[in-house]
What we know:
Layout: E1 8-12, E2 15-22, E3 27-31, H1 44-48, E4 53-57, H2 74-85, E5 90-95, H3 97-108, E6 113-119, H4 131-145, H5 149-157, H6 172-186, H7 203-206, E7 214-219, H8 224-236, E8 240-245, H9 252-255, H10 257-269
Helix pairs in contact: 2-3, 4-5, 5-6
Amino acid sequence: xxxxxxxxxxxxxxxxLAYRDTGAGDPVVLLHSGFxxxxxxxxxxxxxxxxxxxxxxxxxxxxxxxxxxxxFRWADxxxxxxxxxxxxxxxxxxxxxxxxxxxxxxxEYPELVRAVVACGASTSEFEYxxxxxRQVQADQxxxxxxxxxxxxxxxxxxxxxxxxxTLDDVDPDVLRRVREMALGTLTxxxxxxxxxxxxxxGTWARVPKIDVPVLAxxxxxxxxxxxxxxxxxxxxxxxxxxxxxxxxxHYPNMERPEVFTDIVSGFLRTL
Length: 271
């Protein structure tokens, strides 16, 4: 687990953004899923830091990073951090929301990106169509509207096993870690808070111009629309490939950390 003393802070134009920075070598940036924080990658950070400089930020409004008080874009925040750290082109590895941030960033700031790994994600221009996922999202919204934090967390955690498993099928420690991170991020916000995030538009028209290698990684039990969109990303870029991690859904990096790390390490060795 990350100690508070391991976190550093970048003073952005709208508050401090937290990040881990460890190891040495070519830079690899790990971008977490929504409502969690950099600790999603607690298994990958030490393993990858043996060979690479690993940077793992908390996205604005998540973890230890400041909430937004003005309009912002994910890609702009990440680009500002990478320029502050003077990393040179980095490999971006993102899970769920983090995968969308990685893709958005290579679209907007291609000079800062060497390659992309998108796990359960494509670009940020995505709407869930799977009926099970939409029901889970409706349950989250209903609980949040009623101020039912426990109900929201219960619905949110359903993304870990996916539609075809139950929470009992998941390692309790994985569920505990996801719950802890989600609760920490949720309590940073209020129900009436303005959402200052500005989505990137026109992404799919620009995806064919991405000229760095892209790897799509999906849990085989993840929502079909997420798998399809990630594979679409891999097919649309000039240098794309995709792979499945069996027996897991939205968090292969947490449920099968050794497998996920091996996939990422193997991809890095091809660059």
